[in-house]
């Protein structure tokens, strides 16, 4: 893998993660917006998944379906390509985001397309598609309400399902007034109607529709897309050309597999038994049909996923069906919001997928930004052991950059010989009963010398003073007396 | 497609382990148990360890405290220093050879031994046998008192409102929140009050609290606010990592509320003397 596989470096914003997190923590409005939104999402999920047994069985099934698909990923991708091609859908392969953007651009050029309209797609965010195509004079307009709002605001999504979740109605109202010249109102329905009116016309003016894919079904050559606003159907059905972009891991074996995954996805994401729209796209417009695009393309993007795929443990990262439940339940995400991560995918899933997409050198703090509380793993519909994977990434991150085998790009980005030495000393001390007891003896006897300031700990806590006598001493005395 | 894709190891896919069955507990109270005190209790909260010993002894059990013990290895393990963690864990493994239950005065350390040692020693088949038999007889203290000793607690204290905080790994790996609630419910004068976002992490997370002090600090500040608003006069927890975090922050804020280890709380409420 070379430098070209990086997302354009402009996407990794300065300042570094910790500083962005600090700024977010000091933004009371942002914290309130996220807390309220995440609380509501957690409640909604629980309401449709209240039967523990059923939920756990469904999650197990979801995990098995994903694991089976990944176990034969190369074959399934080939099968998918064959069946899509047979159905008249053009399949393109892209190892990097640059390749993916070049493919979309060349299709656009072939049709002299100037205006693209896009349903929601996180892979297109990965590609930074709006910006890259914009530089080539191709306008890319977001049609998902949340995406539209943040496009107007010149921002990036702060959540993979609800991209504008960091804003409240008042903030959206001000934005609309400023950019669209509409009258200020905080009535959410009215705001949505304003957006829809503007967008409605755009669907008919667009030369190409862009979408993501939720599940690519190998057996039938079908692209499945869920959405609630109808913009996905409009984007994929109205313009003469439809280009779908997705990651190589989105493939599932057959239609039967979609049943549990779909149920898990919509319930975990928004607490919906099913989305308002479920689109299944199997071909371009046929000769006897009145509507639909004349041309359909699928771009399958790798962008570092192969690195996760190559490792048995980290491969589980690719189970993800992008429901966002991990972020909704994450105490860190709830407090710092999505933008602080600086990556396309924020939250727990972002912390385990971004190192593959961008390299650990560009995400050095992400694996550490977790208390490993396990709330994410508990709710993950496909049972990704996120805390274990974070721990593994930490291990790769503190290794020497030269250590072999070299498995992850950016390995050793947090390597510090001083810190490694400190843990070695710790290990020697705690693995030697005699040394350990001497250490504890000294620590308890010299407890009054405990420094009042102990690095970052004493920013929020008083210094922790050892007890006068250790449990080792007290227990020995006590047990000798009583036995 | 990248080279890595085609070079990926065959059969490298992992499926999630089966849904765990409910734990089966021994029908008889054992005569002997080991106590694993944990490093935080040893150095900072030895009374919690002593009260654990007393509670077990009151049940007629002989408690053994191998003096060679130090730490389960969790701090190094979660920081990514796997080899360093393994060497510390190896020393602990050698201490509990008799087929007696291992009772741990902290849920996350119990979880480390019961659930993570297997991964830590996965490449050592011989050690792994020892690991698995130890994991099988490892209990968190509250769990052991409730389900193995089947304690019947006689509360002697005045009416008191308490809040219960459970460490995340204790909750998710050992069900300690349920065991703690059941034990507190036996205490007649104690009213357990819920606090806002009770299941949410207190922000400790071992080295997380010093690596990400801002985020961790925001989390503990929210936890403290929720505890104070709950109307509880006291906080009880079965995990000294969280206790160190919450009490340390409470003291920094000069708050009145304090937390206490569940073992000490129960011991004092049921007429135990120091």
Automatic annotation (TrEMBL), chain A:
Q: Which UniProt keywords apply?
A: 4Fe-4S, Electron transport, Iron, Iron-sulfur, Metal-binding, Repeat, Transport
Question: Which PANTHER family does this one have?
Answer: LACTATE UTILIZATION PROTEIN B (PTHR47153:SF2)
InterPro entries attached to this UniProt entry: 4Fe4S_Fe-S-bd, 4Fe4S_Fe_S_CS, FTHF_cligase-like_sf, Helical_ferredxn, LUD_dom, LutB/LldF, LutB_C, NagB/RpiA_transferase-like
Q: Please, one GO biological process term?
A: lactate metabolic process
| GO function term, MF aspect, one | metal ion binding
Q: What is the recorded name of this protein?
A: L-lactate dehydrogenase complex protein LldF
PROSITE patterns found in the cross-reference section: 4FE4S_FER_1, 4FE4S_FER_2
UniProt domain 4Fe-4S ferredoxin-type: residue ranges? 310-339
Q: Which organism is it from?
A: Pseudomonas duriflava
TrEMBL record, chain B:
Task: Cite a single GO MF annotation.
Answer: oxidoreductase activity
Ranges for domain Cysteine-rich: 34-114, 162-246
GO terms under cellular component: cytosol
Please name the InterPro entries in this protein's record.
Cys_rich_dom
A Pfam family hit? CCG
Kindly indicate where the leader peptide sits in this chain. Answer: none
Question: Which PANTHER family does the record associate with it?
Answer: LACTATE UTILIZATION PROTEIN A (PTHR30296:SF0), UNCHARACTERIZED PROTEIN YKGE (PTHR30296)
**Name under which the protein is recorded:** L-lactate dehydrogenase complex protein LldE
In which organism is this protein found? Pseudomonas duriflava
